Structure formats: C-alpha cells, structure tokens
Amino acid sequence: MNQSVKLCTGLLLSALVFSSKSIATENLVFVHGAHFDARSWKPVSSYLSSDVNVLAVNLPGRNADEDASKIGLSNSAKSLCENIRSLEGNIHFAAHSQGGAVVHSAIGICPSQSIKSITYITSVAPLVGESAFASLNADDEKHYFKGVSYNENNHRMEIRNWTHFNATFAQDASSSQTKQLRKLAIDEPAHIGEEAVKYGKAELDRISKHYVFANQDKIISLESQLKIANSLNIHSVYSLQTGHLPMLTNAKELAMILDGIVENVASD
C-alpha cells in the first residue's frame, strides 16, 4: 500500500512539473525606437498569436513636458527593467532601431535569467563601450537629418520637415500608413545615443539572438544592418522588403516572424 501511494505521489509530482513547464508564459516585450512610443507596435500586436503575452513599453521622454536633458541610455534601460519586473515567465525582447541599445544596456541591470531572446528589427546593437549609433554610416546620418534637427533649448531631435521624414523613415508606406505615421511620430530626447553600453557580455552570450533586416531602410541602411548582425552571435535572420518601419508597413509579416521566434525559442 505504501509503495502504491509513493508511486502515485511520484507520478503526480512529475505531472505537475511537466504541466508547469508546458504552460510557462512567453512574454513578448516591444521596445520602440527613436521618435516613436508603444503605440507604434499596435498593428503588429493585432496579428500575434493569443498564446503570447504582449507588453509594449513606453520609454522615458515620450511626453513633451518631460525634461529631455535628463534622459539618457542608462535611465531608459532602468525604466525598461521596471516595466518588465512584474512579468512572470520567459521574456522575449523585440527591439526596433535605437531600442536595441536600450535592451543591451538593460541586460546589465535587469535580472537576466528570464530573458530568453532578443529580436533586432532593423536595430542597432552596441557592444560594451560603444554608443548606440557607432555602427551607422555617413549616409544613414545624412538621411536622418533631412527631416530632423536638434533643438538645443529643449534637448530634443525635432521633426522639422515631414516630407523628408516620410521619405527617409517610411518611403514604402501607403497613403493611409503615412497619415498614421504623422499621428505616431514624436520629437525624440537627443542624448540617449551619447552613452556607452555597459552590459555584461556573459549575459548577452547566453541569450538567443535574431535579426530582421529591412532591405530598403534609409535610416539604418542594409549595409549597417549587416555590419551590426555580423558583430553578434545571431541564431536566425529574416528579411523584409521595407523601409525603417516594418511594424507600420509590414505588420502581418513581422508578427509571423516574431511568433515563430518565440515558439522556437520556447520549445528549445
């Protein structure tokens, strides 16, 4: 009788362990790039699997009344860590553009064991000692400043020419998507890209990394994207025929890619 009870107890415990593993929550955390906020991910979120818990983070400086002179890479990373603190289960970052620098900086701050993957969506990925845009080329910078200029009074990169901004950030956008772009785009705190990343290399090495190329991007050119991806130990790569904002212009395709990455990493 005692042996039977022990056997049943052992089977029950095994079942509970298996059950807890099979229903572990997979959290997809969206980290926006410069000139945007959490709203930019809404089109992608609408196509994602219901099995994934989605969190789109608003980094500091999204409101015009915030003091942009005090907003840098470190406190942006700390804010990201605060946003994910209460999440239970595995964390998968999807970082766009400047968001990759924030994620890399956060790796040295957030408890890292729950971070399972990073997907870089036409994103920077500075290594230790590098600033956010160290890997970009002169053409990238020239295209960016066609529509944007620095305001030294409020410490923001301001969108001054919408025609040029549209042409460099989302030249592939439809008429309706261009209208949406104007609703979403904001002036960006200017000093986030000045700080060097200080994360621990060991933490980054154990995280599964994936890159989504935007082949027509003018802000982070394909040449720069390839340079960035080659500096990382990338596990898988994907390619979209888009400009800098695939979450706006190719939301469904991007959602399918992200769903697949989360599913594959979770099953490893």
From TrEMBL:
InterPro entries: AB_hydrolase_1, AB_hydrolase_fold, Sec-Metab_Biosynth_Hydrolase. It holds the Pfam family Abhydrolase_6. Residues 28-255 form the AB hydrolase-1 domain. It comes from the Bacteria. Keywords: Hydrolase, Signal. The keyword Signal applies. The keyword Nucleus does not apply. This is Putative alpha/beta-Hydrolase. It comes from Vibrio nigripulchritudo.
